[in-house]
Each structure stands twice: as C-alpha cells, then as structure tokens.
Amino acid sequence: MRILVVEDEPKMARLLQRGLSERGNTVEVAPTGEVASEIATAGDFDVVLLDVALPGIDGFEVCRRLRAARVWVPVLMVTARSAVEDRIRGLDTGADDYLVKPFSLEELLARIRALARRGPVVRPTVLTVGDLTMDPATRRVWRGEREVPLSAKEFSLLETFMRRPDQVLTRDQLLEHAWDMAYEPRSNVIDVYVRYLREKIDRPFGRRTLETVRGIGYRLRDGRR
C-alpha cells in the first residue's frame, strides 16, 4: 500500500515511517498541513494517516480541503485528543476513522488494512435538504444563498434533523442525538429550540419545513414541496 503520513514531530514521523515500511508499505511523510494538502491532492495514496495537531492548518482543515477538492482517499486521523467532540469534528470533516495516541503499531496496521479494503468512498460532507445547506466542518448554514447564523445548540439540533430528512423524530431521540442527556425527558428544551430554529430557517423565508407531528415529535421536510 502507498501511505501518506502527516506528522510534524520528527521522531514520531520516523517511527511511523519505519514501522509501516517494514510491513511492506510505501510511505511518504508530510510535515505540515499545507504540504499534506498538496501531496494528497496530487498523489495516488491508499490511505492518509493524518495527525490533527499540525503547524499552520490543522488536520481538520486538511481533511476538509481534501474532501472539498473531491479527493476521497481514506483518512485515518491520529491525535492525542480523546474528547468526543474532537472525534465527531474529525468525522464531520470527512475522516473515515479516528485513532487516539498512544496506540500500538498492530492496531494502526489493522485500521489501515480495514480502510484500504473499503477503498475511496465518495460521500458529500455537506448536508442538503431542499435549499437548506449545512457544512458540519465549518459549522455554517445557508437557506439558498443567504447564510443563517445559529448558536451551537441550534446547529446541533438542525444537524440531527438534516441527517434524517423526512423522518419523524421524538423528543427523546432529539435529546439523545443533539443534547446533553442530563436534561430530563419531560423538559421542554427541544420545543423551545425548535421554535428558535423556525424563527431563523423558516419564517424569514416564508417556509414551513420544521413540522410538528402531534403526539410524537418533529420532522424536517423539503420546504420547496
């Protein structure tokens, strides 16, 4: 396999290059995000091993740029960050898998083999429902050509809807996917934030895309229908 290792720490880069090369792989190393973007866009790699903490642009931005350039090589993000939010952000920018340091070489090789078997998978990182567009990587939302500013919680709730268009979602489901489960199921926080979203993505545009399904929950529909 031909593997691009994106790692700015020289000792770690050498260890990875040696370990992967000894297993029969061809390994190229990029020390910065800018260099990685150029090499990965121009080259034909089976897997990109991408560190998050890089000088200049970070691994999240590198992955976002690759996907924006329609480069679908499998990306395995490698980082010391273990927070769930970081893993979600990495996957939302287009990464295929996420490995937290420290890790064993055997686990790394197993992850790489799994990604290589899967091969490049063309999948948009931008979500679209009707003329409503969301970019999870940059956390921006548009209705048509007009950008709609949202708070972090509004964005999380809308993302849950946009990943399941036309599905009826209960309040419990919305709490589970978009909220801190410390909230009581009987809390009206979902109803409040659905109202906030309607004031931003529907009413200013004369739309009614966020529907109430009486006795169950809510559904996001294509507002052009």
TrEMBL record:
Tell me where in this chain the Response regulatory domain is found: 2-116
Q: Which UniProt keywords apply?
A: DNA-binding, Phosphoprotein, Transcription, Transcription regulation, Two-component regulatory system
Residue range(s) of DNA binding per entry: 124-222
> What PROSITE patterns does the annotation carry?
OMPR_PHOB, RESPONSE_REGULATORY
Q: Which GO terms describe its biological process?
A: regulation of DNA-templated transcription
- Which is an annotated GO molecular function term of this record? transcription cis-regulatory region binding
A GO CC annotation given for this chain: protein-DNA complex
Modification type 4-aspartylphosphate: residues = D51
InterPro entries in the record: CheY-like_superfamily, OmpR/PhoB-type_DNA-bd, Sig_transdc_resp-reg_receiver, WalR-like, WH-like_DNA-bd_sf
- Residue limits of the OmpR/PhoB-type domain? 124-222
The name this protein carries in UniProt is Transcriptional regulatory protein TcrA
